[in-house]
Amino acid sequence: MMELGRKNYSRAIEYFKKALSMIPSQYSEHPWLTRNDHALFIDSLALAYYKAGNLDKSREDYEKIISFTIGRIIYGYIYAKSFYMLGKIYEEKGWKGKAIEHYEKFLDLWKDADPGIPEVDARKRVAGLKQ
Q: Which of 25, 39, 85, 119 is in Cβ range 3.0-4.6 Å of 71 for a Cys bridge?
């Protein structure tokens, strides 16, 4: 996270990948060592890829997060935010339909959360894309 904060994206990506390789698999015999924590590391890795301009790798990792089942219970905000980030990625790639779909999924998941900047931004982005 320190390297990400320093905008040293290549080193941040290297460290996040190494950290992910050390986490037990989703199918561990210990329920507290399942894929719950993978979302934390993959989210950081996806953000590092996004900030480095590698939209395809970022998209792949955010799509991993939305495929998790157990992890979304504990880290629901990361699960929801992944739809928002996928919306941004698709918007930047010029894929309006996919962007709208993911922003709207984010907004649906976020509707009962405390209002905040991402929600307002997502609403504006959807409105802009639908024009």
A: 39
Domain 2-130 CATH (choose: 1.25.40.10, 3.40.50.720, 3.90.1640.10, 3.30.1360.120): 1.25.40.10
Distance CA 80, CA 101 (A): 13
Rounded-to-integer distance, Cα 131 and Cα 126, Å:
9
For 17-67, the pLDDT digits (tens) are 888 887 765 545 555 544 456 788 899 999 999 999 999 999 999 999 998
Q: d(Cα 114, Cα 125) in Å, to the nearest integer?
A: 19
Q: What ranges do the domains of the chain cover?
A: 2-130
3-state secondary structure 68-85: CCCHHHHCHHHHHHHHHH
CA distance 22 to 96: 37
